[in-house]
């Protein structure tokens, strides 16, 4: 008997019918066992047939009703063949009959794992299966300052900050949030630091085959957020001239970051004429809509303004080939390169500023007007990490350090010094002893400073200039090198107010001991490490303290 899903089924009657069907199956199994005991041949398919009938009680009951009893006079092989032949039941038929046997009045048992029954629409399985885009890895090769390269495999959504963190981890460098990934074009002579939020794979897709990524420090990446007035002179900011007064630092940055305001940088720039080596001096305006130049003096009227380049599809680069190649009027060159241009020099907008401060102002304003609040968010990420650390008003001392006591081992047995005055004098005497030992150690090991990250050995003056410029001309950026003019001396190269200065470190002798000094022997140090540590805490004769070591990392 079949039931439709829309019939009103009596549950008690259905259960009785199913019980009667099971009894008929058991009786069929008993008859078959009796035939086997009477000497008939046993077929291995009989049990399979019984199980099929038991699984579908309706079929088993109907089969027993229509099967005649075994005759004693007929051929036994023919009867055995009929009973041992299994019944083929299609899967579709089984599902249909199961649906027919299920009463509509009974609630269906909910499946506790429905997502496993439908892999196509399963959110769990869909999330577990990696997409082709996410699973695809991209090969990126990054070069260091010493010419060594490292190949990294990154996903498509990895930013420049993430790649720098990966390289810092692999190279065991100090993570001071000053590392940057540099897009370098050797044929064009251009390079720029990638913003922390930029996707490395997308940038690599727009680069030519000869271009590469460099891994170096850039201390000036977010320096304009700390000292904005040093980056934006009042004579170049339009609203400062209109207000006839100085503007607060906070208001200066808000005008750049707020999309509703219209900041403007103005001033003279040299522009290289297309297809020529001649340069033309023009008065230019940098706005959110792009870089314009005036065709009539310093006029701001729209009819006198010509669009030189937009900001959305362009990036600003520093020219590293020098002024002689392009016959530039000054050394402070930069250029605007469209993102789609790879190796065509005709599409480049070559520009030149009067001094380093003007060039820094134009390039910084270009970044701020293009990216806006995204730059400030990238700057705040390491600042938030620092703020999450628990602040301590005093340095934490260990338990063993708190339990230290002054001891006197001058006699046969040691004794604890209870008198604080005596303990202090003993500490001073011990310090003098260690200073003498340090001087003797220096005589034995005069090259201990060569292991420091700020010492760069025998490099030329021009190379030191180049390294300072590449790592950001911020106050306190320094390096030490061997002197080219005096083989026994050293040179401290220091950046202050975007100007690079050099100070010679001379050796002086006193009582048979050798010292290093920056001020003709007034302040003497046993080695260069002590000298650097002193001027990191004290300005002394220098224009500023030593803050940022110029580092060359080896990948």
UniProtKB/TrEMBL annotation:
GO terms for biological process: insulin receptor signaling pathway; negative regulation of insulin receptor signaling pathway; negative regulation of Wnt signaling pathway. One of its GO terms (molecular function) is insulin receptor binding. PROSITE patterns: PH_DOMAIN, RA, SH2. It comes from the Eukaryota. It is found in: Cytoplasm. Residues 454-550 form the SH2 domain. Belongs to the GRB7/10/14 family. This is Growth factor receptor-bound protein 10a. It comes from Seriola dumerili (Greater amberjack).
